[in-house]
Amino acid sequence: MTTRLPIRIPAPRSLRALPLLLACLVPLAAQSPAPQSSAASTPVVPVVLDRVVAVVNNQSILQSDLDEEMRLSVLEPNLPGRDRSTETPASALRRLISRALIHQQIRQEDAQAAEPNSKDVDARLAELRHQLPACLRADCTSDAGWQAFLAAHGLTESAVQIYLRSRLEILNFIELRFRQGIQISHREIADYYQGTLLPQYLVGEPAPPLTQVEPRIEEILLQQKVNALFSGWLDNLRQQGEVEVLVPALEAAARPRTSTGGTP
Prior knowledge:
Elements: H1 18-25, H2 28-31, E1 52-56, E2 59-62, H3 63-72, H4 89-109, H5 118-131, H6 133-138, H7 143-152, H8 157-179, H9 186-197, H10 210-240, E3 243-245
Antiparallel strand pairs: 1-2, 1-3
């Protein structure tokens, strides 16, 4: 789900994150004394440390986090409104910022019930290996095919497990926080059936009776209400939180985007 993302970009005079940023940009060679032995004639190749690209309520998002998010995007099916061919570092950073805000709130509320167990993570991984379109082409159901798929996309088993666990925790939290207490009336179900479902069938084409599709319609309406509550809640988190993008090339992550649904 992509929503509007109001972000505070630090003014040029702001020194808030400067020490941390400078520390992350200093080459290792600059931090070590020059060799005094005969090896001094060997050129020293500077190694740039991982840099901070954004700060979300004092939590750093590193360049390595962003790079991994770009690689992990292959695990997502093509959702409505999300074209993988248009994936950019800014869009990946936008997702990381949203996810950081949500996880911070989960910790603040001490929502331990949202934490998935290993069985749930393993089940989601098995589902991914069997159903993800990219995995079907790579034969991810076999161990050899799965390992080849991971290697081809620069991923590790551990990174995928962490990614799936994070997403499951967010989904569980949404379920616990927003779904409980929502009631769908029979009138709402009937209105959806008449106004949305039936028009999808051609004239003369048999449509399922309301009694047959009522549970599915109720689930759809319930999810719509949950999404609306979650979207408003996340917008409020962004307004109350403090987010700084420290890399000018990634400032597009601060630009508002039209919501398309889905989970960060």
